[in-house]
Every structure is written in structure tokens, then in C-alpha cells.
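Structure representation.

___
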Amino acid sequence: MIVEQERRPDGAPSRGSMERQDDNPAAAAPLALVVDDEALLALEMEDLLAGAGFATLIACSEAAARAVPAAALSVAVVNLRLNGELLGHGIIRSLRRLRPDLPIVVVTGYDSDAPQADLRGLGWPTVRLQKPQHGEYLVGAVRDVMAQAKCGARPRGGRRQVDRV
């Protein structure tokens, strides 16, 4: 499902711009939020996650991502760069303010050593995937970050092996 926060003329969110979770037949499945402004990539990630048993929401903008109730989420997959700006860090901070232990997979085209891809200060558990080859590793990374959150196991040495290139 794609989430876009519709607004009434007074600026308040309108009812019906989001499905209620208990009305959704896939409510028993873990819920993944995919935040990406590239529609084809977002749909590809949705397909991969759905194939692994996840219910998914797609948010194509910062406003839509912030409109999703963090308490309902099992995991979030967030692109750092949305609509030409580095908005992913703010989205992650916003989600973590509401739910500090939310597992998050960061998908980015930035190299792990690039300053734009610095994930320090964004909380834990967080896993990074590099574009464009992120697709083949997405489900594994989602399961990995969810397992870290569940058992409280932080990566040794502060960085995952794949980030130590």
C-alpha cells in the first residue's frame, strides 16, 4: 500500500488517507515501512518484502513517512536521499523519537565512508545497504536488523562486517 498523507483545506490530515491496520487482512504479518521517492525501487522493495511475508506501506515523501504510526511498524527501510535532499536522517530521528528500538534498514547510493551516509547518532538497531545492489540483500538485512532488535545483540566493533569495506 502506498501512503500519501492527504490534507483537508485547513491543513489537517484527512481520514481515509491511511488504512487502519485492523481492517487489513494482512494485519498478522509484520509491517514494513518503505521510504523511497523512486517509485520503481520502492515497488521492487515492496515485492521483495511481501514475498518474505511482510505487509508493507510505501511512503514517497517525508510528510507521508512521518504520518505513519511508528508503534505499528516492525521495521522501516529508509532511503537517505529523498527528492534531491538528505531527508532520511530526519525521518529516522522522527521514527526513533517515537520508538527508540525500531529496526531500520538504510538504503543509500552513498559509499559507507561518505559524510552523507554517516549513521552515527541515529540510534540502533540500524543496518546499511548500498544501492544499486541492495535488492538481493534486502530481506536478509531486514531479518538481521529485526533479530538484533529482538535479542539486543549489537554488532561487534561498532560496525557490521559489510560496512568495513
About this structure: The chain is about 25% helix and 20% strand.
